[in-house]
Amino acid sequence: MTSLLSDTPVSDTSAPLTEATTPTDAPPADVAPPTDNSPLSEDAPRRVRNDDAPQATATGDALLGSHSADAYAELMHEVVDALTERFTRVDAPTSANDRASLESEVAGFDLDCHGIGNVAALREADDLYARNAVWFHHPSYVAHLNCPVAVPAVAAEAMLAAINTSVDTYDQSEVATLMERRLVHWASRHVGFAVGDGIFTSGGTQSNLQALFLARENVLRAHGDSTRRDFLSRLRVLTTDQTHFSVSRAAFILGLDAEAVVTVDTDATGRMDAEALAELLRDIDETGGIVMAVVATAGTTDLGVIDPLTSIAEVCEASNVWMHVDAAYGGGLLWAPQRRHLLAGIGRATSVTIDFHKTFFQPVSSSALLVRDVALFEPTIHHNDYLNPEAEAHSAEAEPNQVDKSLQTTRRFDALKLWTTLRARGADEIGEMVDTVCDLAAEVRELLETQPDFEVLGASDLSTVLFRFVPATARGRETDSATADELVPMIRRVLFRSGRAAVARTTIDGTPWLKLTLLNPDTTVADITAVLDLVRATGHGILAGRYLESTTTEGGAA
Ligand SMILES: Cc1ncc(COP(=O)(O)O)c(C=O)c1O
């Protein structure tokens, strides 16, 4: 059949590109394909210059475009050189500047001034930010779940920032959407979802929120007979006392009652007790509640343990309940040859959170929410005429719009970092690094157990170590547990202020503990021994100071 528009010459570029002029996705014949002058290809010159130098524009080098490409390149080289210098020289995990001096430094900048120029501003940022940064790659940074980052991912971060893709609709992202989808399917397959799907998010907090949002809407669908208001008041989310706080905050954001988050008992190691879970499910059912989701954790934030996923899956399947696995921390084990078996059962979950910016060595942010079936997104899809119109959603030409699945609209192409990491290093190399940090944690724990002035708690499946300084005597006086309790936050603060080591602190069952989170595969036992020596010396120093203070006060009173 001849299209009414078929007379329109395809060379007429003023004509709208209707379906008739472009029956396939191929470009019109006279539109030359882009030349393959990749500046990164082996034989291409390092920088590509047009013979016709781009004309200067009114905005000069303020905005990135052809006219400012050279200025951009120079600025980037300058930043990279400055950072290279910093990485070569950094010898402490934090600056020893106290907060008051940092506050006054920050306050000293005029943010309403005339611009000082790109180079000057970046030099200034290097001096303010980089000079005072907290360095996660330093072997004495052992505080939180922050990792050193994969080099190709850092370079990819610069690439995605410059191009500034937004992975919300296909027409803003094209190949980026396809690459993200490919990665999501890759990760889903590793989880064990045969036809899984998912979306990249800003982090574990957002992935958990979205998991509970999907759970709420799918469960509501399944209880179509009750009104939303009645339904919300009956919903329950089952967690443990070790579940990440983002889960209860998500329940709050989703409008659940304060008592909706119910705590399942844990065993002595801090893992969810699957029998207690089964009992609780029966109780909730008998009392008219509706279980919206059971949240198991694969790698709790403090103890680093994995809930018994297989047993929990059995209980959830028997009751037809949504099982979410928060593997924000433990997700990297999927690729760790020595430990991937610890995640057995994860493929039976309904949804899974994985943070690539924790155990896949990605720069923040890089996380994904994965679901076992793409249809689970269905009740939360929103169509908008200007982005993903409903009229097109089911047509043959429907475009893959990630905004259908994402809570965000404009969204970074974080997936590029993971993509380049996989291509550059391979998942196995990353998985081995995860094994290495877990081995290191096990060694450090064993070491601590041999030292009488340290107490250790639990045995992590991952890479946290909980311990505290408990000297047998302090200047001849028995040090009681209360003193050890008090020392925990003091040691952390003094060490942090000194800039020499960053350790974390937490409280388990009412007792304070220092926490090491080991996520740097280049860190050695000797590095950690040095941190432990600092902890010990700081503890002794605090006790000695107290002793001096008390004797001076007593002396003064006499
Ligand atoms: C188990 C767990 N889930 C979720 C989160 C939240 O992740 P994010 O900080 O990326 O939002 C964390 C953070 O430490 C975590 O440990």
From TrEMBL:
Biased composition (Low complexity): 15-35
Pfam family, one: Pyridoxal_deC
Basic and acidic residues composition-biased segments: 43-52
Region (Disordered): 1-60
Biased composition (Polar residues): 1-14
UniProt KW keywords: Decarboxylase, Lyase, Pyridoxal phosphate
Cofactors, names only: pyridoxal 5'-phosphate
Recorded family membership: Belongs to the group II decarboxylase family.
Protein name: Lysine decarboxylase DesA
Lineage, broadest ranks: Bacteria, Bacillati, Actinomycetota, Actinomycetes, Micrococcales
Gene designation: desA
